[in-house]
Design goal:
Number of strands: 0
Number of helices: 2
Strand content: under 5%
Largest sheet: none
């Protein structure tokens, strides 16, 4: 029996060090750079939720 080793990409994710993620690819952890951008968008939305989509609509399409 072989023991799974840490993937070299593990530092790119916010996964617990004591966790071994078994995933078939249908869902999973988000890479840190993507998560960071997501959080920036979320903060921007929270600052003005009512007008966010109307202000950003053209930029997003």
């Amino acid at each position: 029996m072989t023991v799974a080793t840490q993937p070299t990409s593990r530092p790119d994710y916010h996964l617990r060090a004591d966790w071994r993620l078994l995933n078939n690819g249908s869902f999973g952890a988000c890479p840190k750079p993507v998560f960071d951008v997501y959080q920036q968008w979320q903060v921007e939305f929270e600052q003005h939720p009512g007008g966010y989509m109307s202000r950003q609509r053209d930029e997003l399409t």
